[in-house]
Structure formats: C-alpha cells, structure tokens
Design a protein that fits this description.
Layout: H1 11-28, H2 34-41, H3 45-52, H4 55-69, H5 72-80, H6 85-113, H7 118-144, H8 154-164, H9 167-176, H10 181-196
Helix pairs in contact: 1-2, 1-4, 1-6, 2-3, 3-4, 4-7, 5-6, 6-7, 6-10, 7-8
C-alpha cells in the first residue's frame, strides 16, 4: 500500500479515505469493512485507525464530510436569511430535497441499519439531532419575523417541521409517488405555510 500510519494528519489522505467510505457505504451498506476502505484508499488499515479511531469514528466523520462537501452551512445560512416566513419555508424545502437527493444512498443505509449496527446507528442519530437543531433555528427565525401562528409553541412547530421534512416522507413522495423536486417544494411549502404561519 502506498501510505501507512505515518500519513496521520495528512488532509488529502483523510479526504481520500472519506470519499472511498462514502462510495463503499452506498454500495455495500452495513457490510463495510475497514480493511476494504484502506485497500481502496491506498493506505494501511492502521492509517484508517489513526485518522478516525474506529469504525464508529469513521462513519461519524463521513456524515460530517458529506455536510462539508455539500456546503450545508452556506445553504442553511441562505434559508435563515429569507425575508419572510413563506420564503424561508420554500428555501428550506428546496434545500431538503436537494440534500436528500445528494445523500440518499448513504441515508438509506444509515436508516435501515440504525437498530442493528451501533456505528451506523450513531451516525444516523447524530444527523437527526443536527437536523432537529437546524429546523428549530428556522422556526425561531419565523417567530422573530412575527409570522408563527399563535397556536404553536416553538418546540411543537420545530418538531412538526422536522417530521414533515424527514427522509422517510421525502423518499415516499419522490421515489414511490414520483413527485418531481419542484412538485415536492411547492406542495410541502403550501402545507407548511397553512400549518405554521399566521393567516
């Protein structure tokens, strides 16, 4: 192999390992083995351990890498900068379908294996907790714009937005019912506007 434990700390090696892991998780699911990650990335298995600690650490790093690769932070900032509640919801649903489309193969593996594989389950729960926080920030922004309907608490509205935008719902609508991205954004924005915003 071309690289060994001495490469620990090398950003290019780390990125290569994560890119290989992304592909392997999408292809193989929970059968992912660190030895195959190392072989595909051209490093020793020790190098993988030194960079990520263990399989759990590698998979948690992968989901963070996916967010960074997709520039999720900038996309969330764009949503938060919306001047109205309606536009915020529309931007949020556009980001939701774009994001799930990009990570769908890996998300399916993480979700399906979350109860049977500790590392995959930890990675999935980590993502869901971050999504809950992000949707909570969106609802607070709507409340700050004085557009959140009075019957909603921040917590309940955040939970509703999180549930409506969940992977399961998105996958059923876009994969099983064949909704286009534009149809998804339009319909979900309409639903959320009627449910959450001041009439």
């Amino acid at each position: 192999m071309s690289t060994d434990a001495g490469s620990y700390g090398d950003p290019e090696t780390r990125t290569r390992i994560l890119a290989v892991t992304w592909d392997l998780v999408a292809d193989q699911g929970s059968s992912l083995k660190l030895s195959e990650v190392a072989e595909r990335a051209g490093v020793s298995r020790q190098a993988v351990y030194l960079h990520f600690g263990d399989r759990n650490g590698l998979l948690l790093a992968l989901v963070n890498h996916m967010d960074e690769t997709l520039d999720l932070g900038a996309s969330l900032a764009h949503v938060q900068a919306a001047p109205t509640g309606y536009e915020l919801l529309e931007r949020a649903m556009r980001l939701n379908t774009d994001f799930w489309t990009a990570v769908c193969p890996v998300a399916q593996v993480l979700e399906a294996a979350q109860h049977d594989d500790e590392a995959l389950g930890a990675a999935w729960r980590d993502r869901m907790e971050l999504r809950q926080m992000a949707f909570g920030m969106m609802i607070r922004r709507i409340a700050d714009l004085h557009e959140l309907a009075a019957e909603w608490s921040l917590e309940e509205a955040s939970a509703l937005l999180y549930a409506v935008a969940h992977f399961d719902t998105w996958r059923e609508l876009t994969h099983q019912l064949r909704w286009t991205d534009d149809h998804y954004v339009k319909a979900m924005t309409l639903l959320l506007r009627r449910a959450l915003l001041v009439a």
